[in-house]
Amino acid sequence: MKQTTNSIVMIRPAAFRMNEQTAVNNYYQKVLDGLLPSTVNAKAQQEFDAFVEKLREVGVDVTVIEDTLETDTPDSVFPNNWVSFHENGDVALYPMFAENRRQERREDILDTLEEKGFEITNIMDYTSAEEDGIFLEGTGSLLLDRANGKAYCALSPRADEELFIEFCEDFDYAPVIFEAFQTVEGERKLIYHTNVMMCLGETFAVICADCIDDKKERKMVLDNLKADNKEIILITEAQVNNFAGNMLELRGSNDKRYIVMSASAHQSLTPKQIAQLENHAEILSSSLDTIEACGGGSARCMMAEVFLPKN
């Protein structure tokens, strides 16, 4: 199984704004005072377009889908939370915490991929869990080490343990389960998505071990990464707040590997951390300030990796 892909899906926002339904447990979101909604959306579109251009310049195959104004989907720019695409032709659809995010799931996106020659053989639909108030938000909640058959999940209101284990059984992953916290106004609160504090590359892992308060859990997670010979690059909580955990390794032209992140993530890294990362792949960063502030997500969340077979 490959850990990295050359193909991704990205959704160009149509009515991007701070989603009041997700802000209840995504503490990274901020209100940008004094900006009209149309201005916020225009800025988000500019950041999105520049980001896509940078990815395409290095040879990443980006399928861009335009969001629709028919639905109220302020977070549509983060498709990795509702869908994942797998090497065996499976597509997984996930239950979403925020009601308005459930409208992001669109069958026509799957049709577009099939038109591009990708093969979809089976759809694993977990979305009925929403009726029971149970959620698992895609590769935001679960980090897949595809090559080593492990899935990492920081439990939260958006990542249910039983459903995560069910996913692991269906897709043949060994579950690695823990809790990750951040300090919010002096209190330790659960981090809403695993991919904010951790990133898995082919030969490295970026992780904020300080977010895992339970020492046994912290050791267990780090031991799993070490067992798979990944170089562990530790980041701080302050760097997590700049989305330094929200990276993704992709392949460009000639199979060259890139570690993709936002400009704020890149700027928050120390020279030593940058050198460690550059031992594995070239860094590609792009400014996503508006998307990060209003959306509370960053580069990784904007890219749904496509591992589907091609005919």
From TrEMBL:
Domain of life per record: Bacteria
Pfam name, any one: DDAH_eukar
InterPro entries: Amdntrnsf_FN0238
NCBIfam families the record matches: citrull_CtlX (NF046062)
PANTHER family reported in the protein's UniProt record: AMIDINOTRANSFERASE
Name the record gives this protein: Amidinotransferase
Protein's organism: Flavobacterium hungaricum
